[in-house]
Specification:
single chain; about 80 residues; mainly alpha
Length: about 80
């Protein structure tokens, strides 16, 4: 995969996972307060968790690609 594409995917998943964490915090607040129907709240927490996992994988793949590139710069 192209490194620029991999980085763009990582950034997009990073933003989505940050939003997911904020929304899941709200859902966990409802869960802690013992709302009567928590189906939606648990679904939100699961989706947010999945987004974080996908972001971690994408970020690690991107970093691996960066580390595999040959060094072209000069140090001063």
């Amino acid at each position: 995969m192209d490194l620029r594409k991999s980085a763009a995917i990582s950034v997009a998943l990073g933003v989505l996972s940050a939003i997911g964490l904020l929304v899941s915090a709200l859902a966990l607040t409802d869960i802690a307060h013992g709302e009567p129907d928590l189906t939606l709240e648990w679904w939100i927490v699961r989706v947010a968790y999945l987004l974080v996992v996908l972001f971690q994988v994408a970020a690690l793949v991107t970093l691996r690609g960066i580390l595999k590139q040959p060094h072209t710069g000069t140090s001063t």
